Amino acid sequence: MTESITLAFALREAFTLVSLAGTLNERFTVPSIVGDDPRLPFVIDTANIARINSLGVRTWIQWLSLLAKDARRVYFVRCSPPIVMQANYVANFLGGGCVLSYYAPYWCEACRTAERVLARTTDRRDALWSNRPTRPCPACHAPLQLAEAEDECFNIARDQDPVEPPVFALALEQALAELATRPEGKGASGGSEQS
Question: What is the pTM of this model?
Fold first, then answer.
């Protein structure tokens, strides 16, 4: 059985937030959000995207092309490692959108624990490059190491000129927290699961 993608969304005064979970594959279709205001920025949360195949990439790029035709400003938050990898290798994968944050994969050699560390491209760029996100392993407290090549983890930030609209900061955090507490597949004004 092929895993489906789950969509959750939140409509806000300043933006529309869509949170995706699962696998971007042949079952992924261009989402339609009832009540979405096409004049507002579009924020895409991909923290829970586990895998992507070539058919999912094709539909993803079609979706972002439609948003670009509407002259929508698109922001990406909490990009999962599979999204980061595709953004590094597939031309126009982000469709001109701006990455505000992404997860870098880390690994603990001591206890073999995998961990994702959130990096914000809105932090000063020189600080991001000289002070890579680091932390101790949550299980054994040994230092975590990058699980992927450094370029694959951090190139996504190199090409960004992120300017997070001031209204986003608090409202976006609240919307992401709200979506996390809802039953899977539900949004502020509904939600759906593609199967």
Answer: 0.82
